[in-house]
Amino acid sequence: MGGVTGFLGIAAAVLLLSVIAVRVSIRLGLPSLLLYLGIGVLLGESVLGIQFEDADLTRSLGTAALVLILTEGGLTTRWRDVRPALGLGIALSTVSVGVSIAVTGFALRFLLDMDWRTALLWGAVLSSTDAAAVFSVLRGVGVGKRLIGPLELESGINDAPVYIAVVLLAAPDPITWTAPLLMLYELAAGALIGVALGWLGGAGLRRAALPATGLYPLATVAVCVLAYTAGDLAHASGFLAVYIAALVLGNARLPHRSDTLSFAEGLGWLSQIGLFVLLGLYASPGRLLDALVPALVAGAVLLLLARPLSVLCAALPFRVPWREQVFLSWSGLRGAVPIVFALIPLIQGVPGAQRLVDAVFVLVILLTVVQGTTLPWLAKGLRLVRSGEAREVQVDSSALDALGAELLQVRIQPGSRLHGVYLSELRLPPGSSVSLVVREEKGFTPQATTRLQEHDQLLVVCTDAARVATEQRIRAVDRAGRFARWKGDAGLA
């Protein structure tokens, strides 16, 4: 078996094994990302003998996977959850990055006897938290949105300034006073491109009458990838552009929203699996032992000194309680991003770059084991776990073009204030009505006296003109109950 047939067979087997690894990782209490790396190492030269040493191709494929992971992260992040933490999230993505690079570089300059530029390059590569690690590990810890919000923003945004810093430090040219201005331009331009394409994409998808439901998720992801390309062509931050575009789209009124988010989640999992298996395949276990000592030194500096100080500096203006600062410090999860960024100086021929790649690989494994397995215990020990926190009601829409109407699919989540509300108390705007309720897999036509319950699924038919007001009313009652309007909740995102 060879050629395309062999490649497809191996890819399918690896994908199935990786999906099974998710269940195994949950039982063992280990992040599944480690098992993906292990699968890649198992396929590699030291075990099954697959030779793969193309650093340039690894970086290119890794960048493509990161774009899709950031797309999934932005689409599934609720603006309502992260908006209160916007200032802290931006500070963690910028101020924290700068402090982390400086502290790590200063310590490694003397502890590992490096020159200043190399030490700062190590600090830059190691300062980026990983979106895949955060999105897959942190959301299962059980802490409140007050902590999840800034960490998700940090992991989605900080790739951009870190990438710029790594490129600047890995280049042979001297760093001049224009470097901060260049970084400021790239970040600002990337953010503007992301907002513009996200808004235009959302407006276009709402007006498009595509012939198949499955085309809407494809178009949404294509807009996000286009944002990365546009940012890169404009010499701006493509990573920031794709995350911002996805964030705007994910919080816009998209047709078939649930289908789009499910597709993006599957694409994100596929990208994570492919990326970590690829990096495991690229790694050479024979060199990793030599990188153990510098990896342990860099890891200790990062975990015990650089990360806590960087979080302290970023959180200082926001009066974050010390327990939350401890959790934020320990939640700086590293994953594939530092490994992909470490390949940049290797491709450019920077002296000692192979040592950096090997050390980062070892460090990612060590930190993922240490941080990923202890985060739930730390959250409980700091009394930050919030059990039974209500999840937001799920509202999906499908266009009924011939009728000039839309069909809203509503799922009432556990803890929702919609539970116990009579249909007459829902007080939907004129032009909308609940046509069907599905409860315990049985559907019925509701009456004014029907009382809604958790896990109910509703079909709401409304005119195009009443679409926004209907969803706002449902979300308001979901958050504040039948007296939402008098409590001041209008259901705005």
Properties at a glance:
globular; 5 strands; alpha+beta; five-stranded antiparallel sheet; 493 residues; 20 helices
Can you summarize this structure?
The protein is α+β, with helices and mostly antiparallel strands and 493 residues long. 64% of the residues lie in helices and 6% in strands.
Folded structure, characterized:
By secondary structure, the chain is of the alpha+beta class. The protein has helices spanning about 5-30, 30-45, 55-75, 80, 85-110, 115-125, 130-135, 145-155, 160-170, 180-205, 215-235, 240-250, 255-280, 285-290, 290-315, 320-330, 335-345, 355-380, 425, 465-480; strands at about 395-400, 405-410, 430-440, 440-445, 455-465. Strands 1-2-5-3-4 form a five-stranded antiparallel beta sheet. It is globular. The model has no long low-confidence stretch (mean pLDDT about 85).
